[in-house]
Design a protein that fits this description.
Layout lengths: L13 E9 L2 E8 L10 E4 L1
Antiparallel strand pairs: 1-2, 2-3
The structure holds zinc ion.
Length: 47
């Protein structure tokens, strides 16, 4: 298990951040630009 937890915040300034990049895929998560909280579960995208 990983220690990821989805947080909530009152801001509306969201941005997709790459948290891990492996060969042909990258893991992204939605974060708040104002308080840096993670607002979604990590998602793996193929590139
Ligand atoms: Zn926030």
């Amino acid at each position: 298990m990983n220690s990821f937890k989805v947080e909530k915040c009152p801001h509306n300034n969201r941005v997709l951040r790459v948290i891990e990049s492996v060969a042909t895929s990258e893991k992204t998560v939605l974060i708040c630009k104002d308080c840096e909280k993670q607002l979604s579960e990590p998602k793996t995208d193929c590139i």
